[in-house]
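Sample pair:
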Amino acid sequence: MTLIAISLVILSAAIHALWNVFSKSKKPTPSFFLLASLLGTALLAPILLLHSSTVFSDIPSQVWVFLIIAGFFMSLYYVSLARAYRVGDLSVAYPIVRALPVVIVLIVVVYLGRADQVTYQSVAGGLIVVLGCFMVPLKGFKGFRLSDYWNLTCAMALIAAISTAGYSMVDDEALKYLRSDSQFDSDNTSTAILYAFLEACITSAWMALYVLMRRQSRVEFMQLIRFDKSHAFVAAIGIHLSYTLVLVALAFADNVSYIVAFHRLSIPLGAALGILILKEQPYPTKIIGVLVVLIGLVCVALG
């Protein structure tokens, strides 16, 4: 893994943590993330200049099915993430949302009969991640209370984590299918960016459906457009820039697992920014739990 790849991934992790801190500070709503998704779609739109004649003719119908499913999961992710950030601490929700998808994917892989793809180190790392996630919401090592977990913040973070695992697995299958299709002729990076654009379009459609069904969300969306669209634009840049940097970094790395490992630096960084910038409580259990999560993720990524 070259110095360029390491630098790009660390920068991406920092941007990922920053856009989450920024979004949390604005008390985001589904309307906020809908506007951010629409603006992100506009940012990715120039990729159509390379594929304007092939988007609808060469992309297989199966990939469109994948896109619809992935878009649903991503919209559910945004809705649950917004709720988690409105009712709880980023330094609790962010590590759960970022870490648990890795464990969920491991469980699904084993359930689908692909246990040969999972090493003992990855399993051990997954258990360590779970342990760390159980520690993060605690306010102390003594006096365990069910309320530390049985609350809306943890519930929404769990839904966001499940949604992340969902669209990640669907995206992986869709991109493999698209790259193996002989009719679709494009390099890997261009294909990934085109896919990200189409996914942003469909995610926006799912989010718009959710917002249109709720009067309060419709009102919030119009207010954002009139008075606060610049904040959604900043979030859109952060969301899509962090993803694009990872795509570029893949060209400078021999092993994708190292990219995954380094990108998880966003977890302690996000938790630290939540404590330092948002003035959230730095409980020792929270700090230790985040570090345990990071160790577990590194074990999974390098396993």
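The mean pLDDT is 84.
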